[in-house]
């Protein structure tokens, strides 16, 4: 949910807080971050050069992953986005959605890229 990238400027309605980043395993960077998405806002379709896994802390989101049915996620739900999958997350509740995401990505590429 932290897309497009934790270190880059977030789209309007999205706040990203980097929590931790380490170079591990070899050739990869593991990044943990907190994303907050205001009601009605979305991350925009994007990809990561590795997997993303996470846990919804608060609120509700609609997660769209290319090739999979859309999923409604609420506080307490977890998710996985496969490496390279185009995906988007939209906050659909009346309160901001908050999630912790962990990315294990090829460290020679940006954490996230807009989907083509």
Automatic annotation (TrEMBL):
Pfam families: Cupin_2. Residues 34-103 form the Cupin type-2 domain. It comes from Mesorhizobium marinum. This is Cupin domain-containing protein. InterPro entries: Cupin_2, RmlC-like_jellyroll, RmlC_Cupin_sf.
């Amino acid at each position: 949910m932290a897309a497009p990238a934790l270190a880059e400027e977030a789209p309007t309605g999205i706040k990203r807080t980097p929590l931790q980043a380490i170079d591990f395993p070899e050739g990869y960077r593991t990044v943990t971050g907190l994303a907050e998405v205001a009601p009605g806002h979305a991350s925009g379709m994007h990809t990561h050069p590795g997997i993303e896994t996470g846990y919804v802390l608060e609120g509700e989101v609609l997660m769209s992953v290319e090739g999979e049915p859309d999923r409604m996620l609420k506080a307490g739900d977890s998710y996985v986005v496969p490496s390279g999958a185009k995906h988007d997350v939209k906050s659909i509740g009346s309160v901001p959605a908050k999630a912790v995401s962990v990315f294990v990505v090829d460290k020679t590429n940006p954490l996230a890229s807009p989907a083509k």
